[in-house]
Design brief:
Four Helix Bundle (Hemerythrin (Met), subunit A), five-stranded parallel β-sheet, Ribosomal Protein S5, domain 2, eight-stranded mixed β-sheet, 30 strands, elongated, Helicase, Ruva Protein, domain 3, alpha/beta
Length: 769
């Protein structure tokens, strides 16, 4: 047993350790505090350029894991090469499978613009050149040449037709016979078969010549178109001659334009600048443009839906039918971050299951494929863009529970995310770390435009940090919570018309925050004071004790006293816990009850069976309960009921117990003590009030100044115990007792009285058998 002195109730930060008066004097520098292991893991993971070495960053919210991940990625990205640009273009051989072109950073936009200018010029110049005088002359020359050939063929026919007194002339409908005199007109039908044969032969020759004419005109048109296209495209080919894929595509463009030059003969000048319909095939989809970045990209996708993450193919409605083409392929964040870093939130990603599956497919195949899911039935055409090689480091930020679930239930996760960077929620309270927290305060003041904090205020922030992690020797790594205190303390200082935030402003801000959130706590306290909830803080009662629990109301935690009562009587059913029987308790709470049975058996049933009935309950408790912090409290009440010794109601108890009677530490010790202290204060101190806690929890004490003063004035006490014997002696004022060599306890001790009662129960049970 140990009555904790006031010096051990808090570990106050002495502001004399600071070498500044206000945070304005601190040289600001950004540094991640207390996360050396996580930093090392992240640096290691980012240094490995191998498949599967992506990173899962675990930790609590506000630990700096997200901002540090971004800042580290940005720092590394500055020394990395800028990734290539990517363009989707028309596939002239397989239109439903658009090609992707890889270009040096910045060249994608240049290529797109150059090709647009190229097409624009051709739409202007091709109509001009085919309407030019030179073209007409060359075309007429060809017509004249082939007209002469046709004339020769017709003349040859006419030479043969003289014998039949006919001559022929060529018209659109063919050869027309003309009699050389009127009396020959009647002989038209009498033309010999030989002449008909000559006519058919002549017509074949004419058609051959006409075909040659058409082909020659086509050759001319092709030559004219080719010469023009070739002039312009040579500039493009020279510009991108080092890129084989681009050169190959430009060759295909040239062939296609020459083949389809008539599509450029648009007489409507208002549409010359438009690239619609047929001309869409020559448009470049600048899919990824990295011209605007320096180094590798760092993308944080806060809403990683399937399409936001993996891209999509968009459609437009034409006559009720959805159509698309290569220009409608849109990039996702995985494309935008390719060659760099993509940072995702685990919860947001896993909420979009298809996005998670798509991401895994990309990482396993090391390629990114843009493909829609759940295609609409009205889609007229589906395109399958060429995949892009994936070179990317993924950083997923989540909590440890999610990490464990993924490891257990997702076979692919461990193969793809081989590095875990675990951000701690606490760090050692060393002078070095205290100094780092002060630098953090100074940084926030400068970055957020806050008024400066004096060293007393910073010292109070340090104490708050330790309180957050319930340890005198640790500091919180949850800097978001500290940031809230900074904001609110500065607001209090401004209301006080002060330019510098002091310790009092910090304390007032904490009180104001408590006042905003403690309505439920005040309601319960009022019900206790009115007698609606029965809690006694004076006198002594057999089988009744005040236990302590913690209630969570939003982010606010507070301690609440609970009356625990025990009734014992003859029987063999053992310990019955009412909460367990009515299914209002959790597994851990039920385990605590079984531990009590184990303690009783080991202590009092070595020579005879454990023969009793005991009923334990938390009075006026109607909510679901869990945890084992009440197990020692229930055992004290059980011993009181069995021994007949009354328990001091002024002393409340918390702590779990094992089967050997050893007291074990619990959580929420500060809130439990403060909650009971506030109740005793409201009821009026008698000088005997106090709390029993596990001795291990002394290291967790960071109590408010009012309680420390009360301890100094001896109106409130905090007892630290190691075992049940120490606790029962405080509660009853009677020695617990130690077994002698014969296994008996000293007369009048607690264990003696309990053992006697257990023996009587055993005899009574035997009498009734």
């Amino acid at each position: 047993m140990y009555k904790v002195p006031s010096s051990q109730l808090i570990n106050k930060c002495d502001d004399s350790i600071f070498d500044f008066n206000t945070t304005d004097e601190i040289i600001a520098c950004k540094e991640l505090i207390g996360q050396e292991r996580a930093q090392k893991a992240m640096n290691f993971g980012l240094s490995i350029k191998r498949k599967g070495y992506n990173i899962y960053v675990s930790g609590i919210n506000g630990s700096g894991r997200s901002s540090y991940s971004v800042s580290l990625a940005e720092k590394l990205s500055g020394s990395m090469n800028i990734p290539s640009d990517w363009c989707y273009v028309y596939n002239f051989k397989k239109p439903n499978k658009p090609k992707v072109l890889k270009l040096k950073s910045g060249n994608g936009a240049v290529f797109k613009k150059e090709l647009e200018n190229f097409i624009f010029k051709l739409r202007l110049d091709i109509p001009k050149i085919f309407n030019s005088k030179e073209y007409e002359e060359r075309k007429n020359d060809i017509y004249d040449t082939y007209k002469s050939k046709i004339d020769e063929v017709v003349n040859e026919l006419n030479l043969n037709a003289v014998d039949y007194n006919f001559q022929f002339t060529l018209a659109e409908d063919g050869l027309i016979p003309i009699p050389m005199s009127l009396h020959h007109l009647k002989k038209i039908e009498e033309i010999s078969s030989e002449l008909n044969a000559e006519i058919q032969k002549t017509m074949r020759k004419i058609r051959t010549v006409e075909t040659q004419l058409v082909n020659r005109i086509k050759q001319l048109d092709g030559k004219v178109a080719f010469d023009l296209v070739d002039i312009y495209i040579k500039i493009l080919l020279d510009r991108f001659k080092g890129n084989c894929d681009v050169v190959s595509f430009l060759d295909e463009v040239e062939d296609d334009i020459v083949k389809n030059y008539k599509e450029f003969l648009n007489k409507d000048d208002t549409n010359i600048s438009l690239i619609n319909g047929f001309m869409k095939r020559y448009e470049v989809n600048l899919f990824i443009d990295n011209n605007h970045i320096n180094g590798a990209p760092v993308i944080k996708d806060v809403n990683p839906t399937y399409y936001n993450l993996l891209g999509k193919v968009e459609y437009v409605s034409e006559m009720g039918v959805l159509k698309t083409d290569h220009t409608k392929i849109k990039a996702g964040s995985i494309h935008e971050s390719n060659g760099g870093f993509l940072i995702l939130n685990a919860k947001s990603l896993l909420d979009n299951y298809k996005a998670w599956e798509g991401l895994k497919r990309a990482l396993m195949s090391e390629t990114i494929t843009v493909e829609n899911i759940d295609e609409n039935n009205n889609v007229a055409e589906i395109i399958k863009p060429q995949p892009i090689p994936l070179d990317l480091k993924i950083i997923i930020i989540g909590d440890d529970d999610t990490y464990q679930l993924l490891c257990k239930y997702d076979d692919d996760f461990g193969k793809l995310f081989k590095i875990k960077a675990d951000f701690n929620y606490e760090m050692d309270r060393t002078k070095e770390n205290i100094k780092k927290v002060s630098i953090f305060v100074a940084n926030q003041c400068k970055e957020k435009g806050l008024n400066s904090f004096d060293k007393g205020a910073v010292a109070k922030i340090i104490d708050c940090s330790s309180r957050l992690v319930e340890s005198k020797y640790k500091l919180s790594c949850c800097f978001n919570d500290l940031l809230e205190i900074l904001y609110e303390a500065e607001a209090v200082a401004k209301l006080d018309n002060k330019c510098v935030v002091t310790q009092k402003h910090v304390e007032d801000a904490i009180k104001e925050k408590q006042n905003r959130e403690n309505q439920y706590e005040e309601i319960i306290k009022e019900l206790i004071l009115k007698g609606s909830i029965l809690i006694e803080t004076k006198g002594s009662v057999v089988g009744q004790i005040n236990g302590l629990s913690v209630i969570e109301s939003g982010k606010y935690l507070f301690g609440r006293p609970n009356k625990i009562t025990v009734s014992t009587f003859v029987g063999k059913e053992g310990v019955i816990n009412i909460e367990r029987e009515v299914e209002q308790s959790g597994n851990i709470y039920d385990k605590g009850v079984y531990i009590i049975i184990g303690y009783l058996g080991g202590k009092y049933a070595q020579k005879r069976p454990l023969s009793l009935n005991a009923s334990i309950t938390l009075e006026q408790s109607y909510d679901y309960i869990d945890g084992d912090s009440a197990s020692s409290t229930e055992l004290y009440a059980l011993l009181s009921s069995l021994s007949g010794l009354p328990i001091k109601q002024a002393i409340a108890v918390t702590g779990s117990v094992n089967q050997k009677g050893i007291i074990q530490p619990i959580g929420g010790v500060n809130e439990k003590i403060e909650g009971y202290y506030d109740l005793c204060k409201s009821k009026g101190f008698s000088g005997n009030e106090g709390v029993i806690i596990p001795s291990q929890n002394i290291n967790n004490l960071m109590l408010k100044d009012e309680i420390i003063e009360a301890v100094d004035r001896n109106i409130f006490a905090i007892y630290a115990v190691n075992n049940i014997d120490e606790g029962i002696e405080i509660l009853t004022g009677v020695k617990a007792g130690t077994k002698d060599e014969k296994g008996n306890y000293p007369l009048g001790t607690v264990h003696y009285l309990v053992q006697k009662k257990m023996e009587n129960y055993a005899l009574s049970n035997k009498d009734y058998e």
